[in-house]
Write a structure and sequence with these properties.
Elements: H1 3-13, H2 18-26, E1 33-37, E2 43-49, E3 52-55, H3 62-71, E4 77-82, H4 91-95, E5 99-106, H5 109-118, H6 122-126, E6 130-134, H7 138-148, H8 151-154, E7 157-161, H9 163-166, H10 170-213, E8 225-228, H11 234-246, E9 250-254, H12 258-263, E10 270-273, E11 294-296, H13 300-307, H14 316-328, E12 351-354, E13 359-361, H15 363-378, H16 397-402, E14 408-411, H17 413-422, H18 427-431, H19 437-456
Parallel strand pairs: 4-5, 4-7, 5-6, 8-9, 9-10, 10-11
Antiparallel strand pairs: 1-2, 2-3, 12-13, 12-14
Helix pairs in contact: 1-5, 7-10, 14-19, 17-19
The protein binds zinc ion.
Zinc ion binds next to helix 15.
């Protein structure tokens, strides 16, 4: 046992799990845990219970055993790990940049304390993809998964039990496994609804695309028009509508007012339906008189934009989608002021974003952040401040390790202009902009990093960015 090893583990745990770190600091290690060298030389925790001893990992070669088990799984995705043990089982998943997240469930603080006095797991705890729940109630596991696991971003969710550990506490781990299954069922229900209707919507959109390409009968030139919509005054206004009509006005009915017009024997010259939903169907129960043109918003421009997108622009829709989603969640960094000192940042100039600072930085603060960041990286990771991952890119820990830079993402002037306008531009127009590849790479890192952050942080500001879309 070594106090130094335990302190390192505690330091790595404390930024994101301060309560857990404090609890472990006050806990006495479980004396029933001992350690034995496996045939390969690696140390394995061994637990004595009811006069029997059980090893958490293979006593032949725990590392190779873990690699074999991980290799049997499809690569990537989100792992719900039942049991931490000495961490051997998780190392192969962490080594893969396709692994998007790991939620570790472990029970017994004295046991965890004993493990952390022996094994340096600081690298595992520092990986932004990893979170650890100690002694969670099943509903806490559900809440943690629902908050951190987003299927389109994280891929498949799989539970990976550490057999040697789970067998020592079968009831509680069975409860955890049931909680994970419950979340999976709930998410797959949600997801299959989306997948089912998504296909239907897409099929209808494509069919409409064909229909819309056929020439439509042109509307006559309109000099005067009356537009009707549903409302308490509609019926009272019908005589005035009829009079205007008699004087040559073109009658445009929004779909909501169609039943009232038809009910009073009035035939509109055109019907407009915007943002159709299932309920829009009820407006047409009385039918649409033959020959009356129906004007619909078919998202055609967006579909055509997607269809004609050249390959080098394949990332644009995803970046745009994530950027708007981040805005909708209220997590959009303010492009107009420095997140550190508050200085105004001029529009249309290159910008520097730092996840550690939580936004864009002015040149002075960016320089200071770069110095601080590279110092922190040399000192073994920029987490001591409780800040986000250095680099903070979509692939989390792997990217942070591959690029132990300052964690600052440069955003070119062109990319900055695009970002400032992208949230309000029509989709097809936003796709039409051409960016050079370094600009695009910066944007991609930023958008995916923000989305990742959104997936891991509590989403309590759901409404504050809604006006942007
Ligand atoms: Zn500043």
């Amino acid at each position: 046992m070594s106090d130094l090893v335990f302190r390192r583990n505690l330091l790595a745990l404390s930024p994101r799990s301060p309560d857990l770190a404090a609890l472990l600091d006050e806990t006495e290690p479980d004396p029933r845990l001992s350690f034995r060298a496996a045939r390969s030389g690696a140390l394995v925790p061994v637990y004595a219970k009811d006069g029997r001893e059980a090893a958490f990992h293979s006593l032949m070669d725990p590392r190779r055993d873990a690699e074999r088990l991980a290799a049997a799984q499809p690569p990537g995705g989100f792992i719900a790990a039942l049991g931490l043990g000495a961490g051997y089982g998780l190392a192969p998943f962490l080594a893969s940049s396709a692994t998007t997240g790991i939620l570790v469930v472990e029970y017994s603080a004295p046991l965890l304390r004993a493990v952390l006095e022996e094994f340096d797991l600081s690298e595992l705890f520092l990986d932004p993809r990893v979170s650890l729940l100690l002694d969670p109630e099943p509903r806490e596991i559900e809440a943690a998964l629902l908050a951190s696991y987003i299927p389109p971003l994280a891929g498949d969710l799989r539970s990976v039990p550490l057999r040697g550990r789970v067998d020592q506490d079968p009831e509680r781990f069975a409860g955890a496994a049931a909680a994970i299954r419950k979340v999976l069922d709930r998410i797959s229900d949600d997801y299959s609804v989306q997948a089912f209707f998504g296909k239907l919507w897409f099929r209808n959109a494509v069919r409409n695309l064909f229909a819309a390409e056929r020439p439509a009968s042109p509307l006559p030139p309109i000099r005067r028009a009356v537009v009707t919509a549903a409302g308490p005054s509609l019926e009272a206004a019908l005589p005035a509508v009829a009079k205007a009509r008699g004087e040559g006005a073109f009658l445009i009915a929004t779909d909501t007012s169609l039943p009232a017009l038809l009910g009073s024997g009035m035939r509109p010259d055109a019907v407009v339906s915007i943002d159709c939903q299932a309920i829009s169907y009820y407006h047409f129960l009385k039918g649409l008189p033959a020959g009356v043109p129906l004007v619909l918003d078919l998202a055609l421009e967006t579909l055509r934009g997607l269809e004609s997108l050249p390959e080098e622009k394949a990332d644009y829709p995803a970046i745009l989608f994530l950027w708007r989603m981040v805005a909708l969640l209220g997590l959009m960094p303010d492009p107009g002021s420095c997140a550190s000192c508050g200085a105004e940042l001029a529009e249309g100039l290159p910008k520097r974003h730092a996840f550690a600072a939580g936004g864009f930085l002015c040149p002075d603060c960016a320089r200071a952040e770069a110095e601080r960041g590279s110092f922190a990286a040399e000192a073994g990771g920029g987490y001591a401040s409780g800040a986000y991952a250095p680099g903070g890119a979509g692939r989390g820990g792997a990217a942070a390790r591959e690029a132990p830079d300052s964690g600052i993402i440069p955003i070119s002037a062109g990319a900055a202009r695009w970002l400032e306008r992208a949230a309000s531009l029509p989709f097809a127009e936003a796709l039409g902009v051409g960016l050079d590849s370094p600009s695009l790479a910066g944007l991609k890192r930023l958008a995916f990093g923000l989305a990742r952050r959104a997936a891991e942080a509590p989403l309590s500001t759901l409404t504050s960015g809604a006006g942007i879309l």
